[in-house]
Design goal:
Blueprint: H1 3-10, E1 12-18, H2 25-35, H3 45-51, H4 60-65, E2 73-78, E3 81-86, H5 95-102, E4 107-113, H6 120-131, E5 136-141, H7 150-161, E6 164-167, E7 169-174, E8 177-183, E9 188-192, E10 205-209, H8 213-219, H9 221-237, H10 243-247, E11 251-256, H11 265-275, E12 297-305, E13 314-322, E14 325-326, E15 330-333, E16 338-341, E17 346-349, E18 352-355, E19 358-359, E20 364-368, E21 378-381, E22 398-404, H12 410-423, E23 427-431, E24 438-443, H13 446-460, E25 464-469, E26 473-478, E27 494-497, E28 503-507, H14 510-519, E29 524-526
Parallel strand pairs: 1-3, 1-4, 4-5, 5-11, 6-11
Antiparallel strand pairs: 2-3, 7-8, 8-9, 9-10, 12-13, 12-21, 13-20, 14-19, 15-16, 15-21, 17-18, 22-24, 22-25, 23-24, 23-27, 26-28, 26-29, 27-28
The chain binds guanosine-5',3'-tetraphosphate.
Keywords: Cytoplasm, GTP-binding, Nucleotide-binding, Protein biosynthesis
Main location: cytoplasm
Subcellular location: Cytoplasm
């Protein structure tokens, strides 16, 4: 292993911010970029919303709706660290895409609205991180206005999520008017000076020992005393800090701040970078792959088409797992058995793409996709082979039959639907014995259907006929030599094939699934493909 490679790995931090919509993820992302010097003036969120445009918004539909539909990737440097933020869509309908993004990170920042506490979407995303053992750091946001108390929030995280929380800092002041944070490890106070800029610039602050009487004077004796009491209570009754437990996902370091005013953003960023893990090993068919293994390896976790309508291109996003990536290198695409030359790798800062010359484990690189890549594909150095662990498949819960309104547009229709399925935007099924005139589309949420309709119209010029179907469950069939036509009790169900021709049954509810299971005891009905 070369010193160069180790050094590059050690300084990388690749993470996602998980939260419920409106908790302030876009704002925090923007502020991290501001502190990293990647942007110089944070547009206040108001201005952003007015323009319907944020640094991480790419697609037209996102701008129109003001929601983030696709995950984007942002890279910047701070204090010698190379940071990769994988933005995840906040809307609950896009959880599938979010889950896949979480496969590519080494840690997650859980953003919580101080007034609302732990919300539904946060719970779901937390669960995925927990299952995967991803270390989770908590940032309690919106401290500039009234919210639950810091103790209440700690308790809520522990009770609702079942993870212990360790406050790394503690807010100083009274609810709705906090003045600073107390750093527990250094026993230091940091007071922020609100300069009235609404967080457009880096916020000035003064730092010093908690015992410095100057601070007592500024914050007042009562607040100083209350702070000392809180800290004594935390030290006595709270968890002890144990980085090993953090890295195992059992303890979440907790920070307080306001992404809008920048209060607490810098202390959070610095501490987070210090504690969060550098790129971690990934499981593969050849055992764990260590990042400092000199053989290059990566996997595709996201495919996105037509990010720039002017180019009509399709990008596959890979996460580098080991070795060094250099522009123009040849790699082996394990699933197809082909060798590919990677000539135009791209890196991202929102809409600015730049060609990169080299990249290291933890980095995300966008590759032009001639239609060869699928989610979960492995790329390795020439002459080697292995496959990274399979991506979880999320069984769709809503179904609809779609076909092109204009039958002359059949070719574009098939191309559009196929490409969006490869991107993982929706899941596509075909009715048994049916041709390509219509498809059965499966989605986790309603918004995915809307995106499908929107994108087919705007990117492929195809208007859809759209017929919602009454099914809610998909089950992959497993049986030896099964003749699908002999399945019994299927009157209320539908048999289809997935994109890889595997048989799938769609059911209206659990009851009808059980009925069919009972009538076909030799068949197993699985919530995911048998070979997934
Ligand atoms: P999201 O990406 O998680 O969905 O959230 P986003 O950053 O878009 O923020 C959602 C709302 O929360 C925005 O207000 C934003 O200004 C506000 N917000 C974010 N961070 C803070 C904070 O630290 N304190 C306070 N008080 N508010 C915060 P909005 O009303 O939806 O938009 P706008 O009226 O500000 O344009």
């Amino acid at each position: 292993m070369t010193i160069d490679l180790t050094k590059e790995i050690q300084r990388r931090r690749t993470f996602a911010i998980i939260s419920h919509p409106d908790a302030g993820k876009t704002t925090l992302t923007e502020k991290l970029l501001l502190y990293g010097g990647a942007i110089h003036l944070a547009g206040s969120v108001k201005a952003r919303k007015a323009q319907r445009h944020a640094v991480s918004d790419w697609m037209e539909i996102e701008k129109q709706r003001g929601i983030s539909v696709t995950s984007s990737v942002l890279q910047f440097d701070y204090n010698g660290y190379r940071i990769n933020i994988l933005d995840t869509p906040g809307h609950e309908d896009f959880s599938e895409d979010t889950y896949r993004t979480l496969m590519a990170v080494d840690s997650a920042v859980m953003l919580i609205d101080a007034a609302k506490g732990v919300e539904a979407q946060t719970k779901k995303l937390f669960k995925v991180c927990k299952q995967r053992g991803i270390p989770i750091f908590t940032f309690v946001n919106k401290l500039d206005r009234h919210g639950k108390s810091a103790f209440e929030l700690m308790e809520e995280i522990e009770k609702v999520l079942g993870i212990q929380a360790y406050p790394m800092n503690w807010p100083i002041g009274v609810d709705g008017n906090y003045q600073g944070v107390y750093n527990r490890q250094l026993a230091q106070i940091e007071l922020f000076q609100n300069d009235g800029s609404h967080g457009q610039w880096v916020m000035p602050s003064v730092i010093g020992s908690v015992d410095d009487p100057a601070f007592t004077e500024i914050i007042g004796k009562d607040i100083h005393q209350a702070l000392c009491d809180d800290i004594a209570l935390l030290d006595m009754a709270g968890e002890t800090f144990d980085i090993k437990r953090v890295l195992r996902g059992e303890l979440t370091p907790m920070f307080f701040g306001s992404a809008m005013t920048n209060f607490g953003v810098r202390p959070f960023l610095e501490e987070f970078l210090r504690l969060a893990p550098p790129p971690t090993p990934r499981l593969s068919t050849a055992g764990p792959v260590e990042p400092d293994n000199e053989l290059f390896s990566a996997f595709v976790f996201k495919i996105q088409a037509n990010m720039n309508p002017a180019h009509r291109d399709r990008l596959a996003f890979i996460r580098i797992c080991s070795g060094k990536f250099t522009r123009g290198m040849s790699v082996y695409h394990v699933r197809s058995g082909k060798t590919l030359k990677l000539t135009q790798p791209q890196q991202f800062l929102a809409q600015d793409r730049s060609i990169i010359e080299e990249a290291y484990p933890g980095d995300i690189v966008g590759l032009f996709d001639p239609g060869i890549f699928s989610i979960g594909d492995t790329l390795v150095a020439e002459g080697h082979t292995l496959a990274f662990e399979d991506f979880p498949v999320f069984p769709p819960e809503r179904f609809a039959r779609v076909q092109a309104k204009d039958t002359m547009k059949r070719k574009q229709f098939v191309k559009g639907v196929t490409q969006l399925a490869q991107e993982g935007a929706v899941q596509v099924f075909r009715q048994l014995d049916a041709g390509f005139e219509s498809f059965i589309i499966g989605a986790v949420g309603q918004l995915q259907f809307e995106v499908l309709q929107y994108r087919l119209k705007h990117e492929y010029g195809v208007e859809l006929m759209f017929q919602p179907l009454p099914y809610e469950l998909a089950r992959w069939l497993e049986a030896e030599d099964i003749d699908l036509k002999t399945l019994r009790g299927m009157d209320r169900s539908m048999l289809v094939r997935d994109g890889r021709e595997r048989p799938v049954a769609l059911f209206t509810n659990e009851w009808s699934l059980r009925f069919v299971e009972e009538h076909n005891p030799k068949v197993r009905f699985l919530p995911a493909p048998p070979d997934a």
